[in-house]
Amino acid sequence: MSPSSYVGLIAAALIVLFALIVISRAVRVIQQGFVGVVKRLGQFHSTREPGVTFLVPFIDNLMMVDTRETPRTGDRQDVITKDNVSVVVNATIFSQVIDARPALFSISSYLLGIDQLSRTNLRSVFGEMSLDECLSQREKINARLQESMEAVTDKWGVRINRVEIIDIVPPQNILNAMALQKQADQEKRAAILQSEGQQLSQINVAEGQKQAQIKQAEGQKQAAILYAEGQQQAQVLEAEGRGRAIATVYGAIKAGAPTPELLAVLQLDTLSKFAASPNAKVLVPYESAGLLGAAQALRSVLDGVPEGAAAATVNNVRAR
Hints:
Helix content is 62%, strand content 19%. The chain contains 9 helices and 9 strands. It has helices at residues 3-26, 100-105, 110-127, 131-136, 138-153, 172-256, 260-275, 288-303, 307-319, and strands spanning 27-30, 34-40, 43-48, 51-54, 60-66, 70-73, 77-80, 86-97, 158-169. Strands 6, 7, 8 and 9 form a 4-stranded antiparallel sheet that branches. Strands 3-2-5 form a 3-stranded antiparallel sheet. A two-stranded antiparallel sheet has the order 1-4. Helix 3 crosses helix 5 (138-153) and helix 7 crosses helix 8. It is rod-shaped and about 200 Å long.
C-alpha cells in the first residue's frame, strides 16, 4: 500500500475514535437511586433524573449524587456527662440527600460534615444529662441529636432521618457500683416481697381463726337456743301431763262421790307414809287438826262394829 493509503486509514480510525468519544460523553445513563448534576463550563446547569440523558460533549460535566438513605456509624468517642462521668459512646446516623445542588456546592463533603457534626452534638447533649439519664433515656437523646443536626444539615440539602445510640459504656468502677446497686435493689425487693407474704399469711391465719371463732360461737348459740327450746317444750309437755293427770284424778274423785270418812282415811294413810319416811322431821299440815277429829269420830264408829267387819270396812275404803 502507498503511504497515502496508510494516512487515509489512520485518519479514518481517528475519526471513528473521536466519534466514539463524543458519543460516550454526549450520552449517559443515570442509575436508579442516583441523580445527575450537570455543570456547564464550571457552573451548575441542571439536575437530571435516573435514565438516559444527553450532554454537550466537552462542555457539560455530569456528577452523580447518591440519594439513597445512607447509614453511617461513627467512631467510638469519649464524652463527659453532667455529673462528670466519662463514658464511651457510639452512634449510627441515617442520612439522605434530598437536594443534590446544595449537597455538592454548599459543602465540600457532606458525609465528613455529618460525621464531625455528630461528634460535637454528642458531647453537647451528653454534657447536659446525668449518667442515669443517659442510660435510661436513649430515645430522648436520639431525638435531641436529630433535632440539633437537622438545623445545620438542612442547608446542605441533607436530611437526618434518625439517629440511633449503639453503645453507652461507663467506666469499669461505675459498672461495678451499678452492679452492686442492682444487687442491693434486688435483695431489698426480695425482702419486701417476703415481708408482704408473711403479712398476708398472718392476716389469712387471723382471718381464719376469726371465722372459726365466729362459727363456733354461732354453733354454741344455736345449741343453747335448741337446748332452751327443748327445755321449754319439755316443761310444757310436763305441765300438760300434770294438768291432764290432775284433771283425770279430779274427774275420778268427783265421779266416785267420796264421803268425809273416806277422805279422812286417805289422809291418815298419807300421814302414815310420811311417818315411815327416814326424815328426822315430819311436817304436819294445819288441816290435820280436823283430820284428828275425824279420826276420833271414825274410831268411835268402828268401836261399835265387830272386829272383822271393821277391818273389811277399812279395806273397802282403801280399795276405793
